[in-house]
Design a protein that fits this description.
The complex is a heterotrimer of chains A (484), B (503) and C (104).
Chain A lengths: L1 H6 L2 H18 L4 H26 L2 E4 L10 E4 L1 H24 L2 H22 L4 H19 L5 H32 L4 H7 L4 H18 L8 H7 L2 H56 L3 H17 L1 H4 L2 H32 L8 H4 L3 H15 L5 H15 L3 H22 L19 H16 L4 H8 L11
Antiparallel strand pairs in A: 1-2
Chain B lengths: L2 H22 L5 H27 L5 E7 L2 E6 L2 H24 L6 H20 L3 H19 L5 H32 L18 H19 L7 H4 L5 H10 L1 H17 L1 H6 L3 H20 L4 H21 L3 H32 L10 H4 L1 H15 L5 H15 L3 H27 L21 H19 L7 H14 L4
Antiparallel strand pairs in B: 1-2
Chain C lengths: L2 H22 L3 H23 L9 H32 L13
The chains are: A mainly alpha (484), B mainly alpha (503), C mainly alpha (104).
Amino acid sequence: MTDVWMGVPWAVILIVLPLAAAMTAFVWPRISQLLVLGCSLVIVLAVTGLALQLWYHGVFHHALGGWGAPLGIELYADGLSLVLLAATGLVGAGVSVYASAYFSVEEKRRFWPIWLFLLAALNALFLSADLFNLYVTLELMGLAAVALTALPGSRDALAGAARYLFVSLLGSLAYLLGVALLYHAFGSLDIAVLAERLRPVPAAWVALGLMSAGLLLKTALFPLHFWLPPAHSSAPSPVSAVLSALVIKASLYILLRLWIMLFGPFAGDGVAAFLGLLGVAAILWGSVQALRQTRLKLLVAYSTVAQIGYLFLAFPLATVASWNATMVLLLSHALAKSAMFLAAGNFLNFGGHDRIADLDHIVQRLPLSAFAFALAGVSLMGLPPSGGFIGKWLLLEAALVQGRWDLAAVMLLGGLLTAAYVFKVLGKSFTQADVACTYQPKEIPARMQWVALILACGAILLGFGGTPLLPLLEIGVPFDGSGP
Amino acid sequence: MNWQVWLPLLVVLSSLLPGLIIFVLPENRVGLRTVLNISGAIAKLFLVGWMLWGVAEGHHFEARLALLPDIELVLRADPLALLFVTLSAVLWLLTTMYAIGYLEGSPHRSRFFGFFSLCVTAATGVALSGNLLTFLVFYELLTLTTYPLVVHRGTEMARQAGQSYLIYTLAGGALLLLGTVWLYTLTGTLEFTEHGFLHELDTAHHPSLIIIFILLIAGMGVKAALVPLHGWLPKAMIAPAPVSALLHAVAVVKAGAFGIVRVVYDVYGVEFAQMLNLLTPLAIAASVTIIWGSLRALFQDDLKKRLAYSTVSQVSYIALGVALFGPIGTIGGLVHLVHQGIMKITLFFCAGNYAEKLGIHRISQMNGTGRRMPLTTIAFSVAALGMMGAPLTAGAVSKAWLMDGATAANMPWVVWVLWASSLLNAAYFLPILWRSWFLSQPYAWPNDHPPIRQWREAPWLLLLPPLVTGTAILVAGVFATFEMSPLAWAQLITDREYFRGVP
Amino acid sequence: MSVALFYALAGAGLFSIGLHALLVHRHLLRKILAVNVMGSGVFLVLAAMAAPNAIALSDPVPHAMIITGIVVAVAATALALVLMLKLTAETGQAVLPGREEENS
């Protein structure tokens, strides 16, 4: 049995299966829903299989079609990739189930193929080890994400999608120019090879600047976050969930990899401190903006802006513990934020609006979704027991060990601000609203409520998963800069 | 896994599971909900009794779960934990009965009792925590599960009370988290240990330890309502009477006071804390709270508000007892943890009865209640006299030990604080008793419900709990020297802390 | 100045011009063109690297990158054009509505 698990090239399946399914879904829409749900299941299985392979055999290399670097495409997986693949698998499966109830038949015909393309692109991105493959998958992901954002076809959605497309293209072109410079200067695209050859010459600095700027723009780190709230809030709810939970994490993943393996050692403390400062600003600015919003989905979107800031606090700390903390935070944010957007989508669908002031009628009639929102909020606030708490604990510990009181203070303040905007919504559950309301609400299928709740519970349960998770992260020791 | 591991877990689960089931029950399944509530409470009481017996027999109860590779969640039943857990288990049963009677027919009861059970779960977890991290986890859980109860009524006042509660407690939680992580970076362990685990630390860390102490005490002090961190408590009295009972006697305020005890005894160790000169400032903070709370209580006309300020004052007796260096003061503080609980819960039960049956919310409306609701008023009077420290009540026992402790610790000014507090207590409780027993009934009560039968002034679910706790006040006072009394248990704990377990 | 360096500088220049246009112009078609000009700049830089020199013959890797890049650019342009047409049909003009025109 174990041999069967070990022998299957799970990494290849992770990419090829959704890609093939996407094309099948396109030409044969009638079976597309079945295809997507089956595909989601297989992806979860494949990630599990890959985890086993990593656990027993260490880092994973695979040259597609027997062609190695530099011309061929090599797949690579270590603990870092695994965490992101797991997030994609879990959130992806949840969103697939949710979307199967959310969209109408006509919408689904367009949604499924693009959604599968997005899954394929995400998986491929997390399995890539060279700079150019990362570019291609990044673009594929960006285009699919833009198409999904535009799905409703309304004015807001189209404008949001167009704006998002230009930002995305600008980011990836800057990244590609940086890649070109690096290749010119050091003659390789493989991250590991580049890590050995990299010297602090001007070309490397320009490349660092261009690639980081492009990726930061796509990750929406303050002050490059301007495009995120309109795009994420105007998209259909399942798409918003994926955008906030996974898509921005993809560019962050590339940045993390580049930083840890390539740029970190020579960029020095100044750049790291600058990134940390931007993170601090993102936490404060995003939280305050979230608190000021009057629309629920915008509030959740600004919350993403703030939470991204936490992920950048590890840059100035730069210890294994702080990178681990970032990964735990990243995973718990993926689960919690997708749950939050899905719950918000339920409210929006049910009541036909997402004005926070009038939300009490809706929230009190959808207790499951309200509960999901609350649990997700607990994780975002970093209150125990939750994945957010574990991440915050590790990060706080790393900050205190290094005497970074400023960062510790910002983390705690950010948690309180998060509590403020989460309870601004949750407080609506406890008003004396007249629940027998005047309008005819739209029925919310049970599975849409349950998916949100299960994802939120996942964020909470992650609080108990630190023991198995952290050793898994150390596969291929991505965080001490020695890798792949 | 054997029963010694399972028992602490089961004690926590005995309220968690009913709570979770109650959430999904439809609003109209009153019978099933009541059965779940009461059976959960009785099961918890039974399990706690079992644990009490086991600890007395010398068994060691402990459950561990790794949260991170080197940090564990620990549930452990040591004598101090059992003191609190027994208190909250007994009072939970009574409060649940009372709440079932009190909320009969009101909306959102599934939600209410669900969070009610979770709240007690968190309090049990706080009591059984074996290290500071576990304490923090349940402490924050307590904050989250109490908020829905505070805002339960859904009025604008309730919303504001809930908001202020959250601001205070979450900020306190943040301080506690900071202190805990900081402590962890210094020591690498957070395990509660008799005599503390910090005295072996290098003296270079002592300034940090002082700041950490302040952070931890401030974090706990928010829930324990130490002045100036007490602002949320009087506002929270807007919640229904059972919730006030829960806040003031069973869970929240107690959790804060209990945390202070834990930090002083099992994190710092009382001798080490004394060496760092941390106890005297704590005693001063507690004394200020005692006097300030009493003074504010004096000027409240709203009955529940007066009781709330009285809590602010009385809970600090516990912190004061802990801060008096020496075994006698410690015994006084610990025993007051129990005594204050039964006295204050009686007062809130009675206040709830007055409001429910006669519509009385203000002290100025209480003329002649003694003749109309004699049983309730007797219970109220016993508890009020106990608060003043009248002889034969539980309050007298606490106060006597605290005063002896102050003398023994060579802090004579504390004796004056206690006398002043007793006088103030008398000043704000005696007028109430005077009005209800000796002034004549008004022409009409604000919102009268005719009595069911002549002697039954209220439904038995509302009447029984205050009578039981009222009796307990007298029993704890009269039979204080008996073997299983709270006082004897407090002495056992103190023996361990001061005399290394040798009685 | 070698031919390769000239190409590379020209590429960088095109990238900058495109970036400027992308930020300044409001009309969507101009923005789409601007992105394409930027892309061409990047491809020019890549092509310059592939030029044969004294040490090595022409390098195939940048060529592969350019071809892949062009495919991506075509797809992106097609998507952008569709969005523009839809938006024009919806709003009557091919500009981004809303408050943040200057940003995107």
